[in-house]
Design brief:
Layout lengths: L2 H16 L33 E3 L5 E3 L9 H13 L14 H5 L6 H16 L16 H9 L15
Antiparallel strand pairs: 1-2
């Protein structure tokens, strides 16, 4: 190999390894998601309405609701919605926050916390991702409802849903 070619190759390799590459985010930062939604799926099965269980304020919810906050299915659907910006199409169910902004755990502002809660509730309410509005109702995730109203990441479960009862 010609010495100049070898030098050019080594220089190109060295500069390529120094160039910073910003990885594209594709996963959800679980640090900005509550450890619990306040309701545990399958609790308080209703004897009259089969397939229904107890949610917040003893409202009936599907027994499969809600998924756990660390459920791979929930996290992947949330990441997809945040990445796409929509749950279904651009005409329906726009997500109010980007994945990058959602994941920024240094942003604990009231506005961002409310947007995070809204995005998670939207994913819950459209959980099957095939039919709009088919999923888990808001009473299955009272902690997210509190976050959406107050803009504070809830740490205490007292007074919520069916947990701790």
């Amino acid at each position: 190999m010609h010495p100049v070619s070898l030098f050019a190759l080594l220089t190109a390799s060295a500069s390529a390894s120094i160039t910073p590459v910003t990885p594209r985010q594709s996963a959800v930062n679980q640090n900005v998601i509550p450890k619990s939604f306040g309701v545990t799926a399958g609790q308080g099965k209703d004897q009259v309405q089969v397939g229904s269980c107890s949610g917040a304020n003893n409202k009936l919810i599907p027994c499969y609701c809600p998924p756990a906050p660390d459920s791979p299915e929930f996290l992947s659907k949330l990441a997809k919605a945040l990445t796409d910006g929509f749950i279904f199409s651009k005409e329906q169910v726009a997500i109010p926050i980007t994945l990058e902004k959602f994941n920024d755990d240094s942003d604990t502002s009231v506005d961002t916390t409310k947007l995070r809660a809204t995005a998670m509730i939207q994913v819950m309410q459209n959980f099957n991702l095939t039919t709009q509005g088919v999923g888990c109702p808001g009473v299955s995730v009272p902690v997210l409802g509190q976050m959406q109203q107050t803009g504070i990441l809830a740490r205490s479960l007292s007074g919520f849903g069916n947990e701790g009862k």
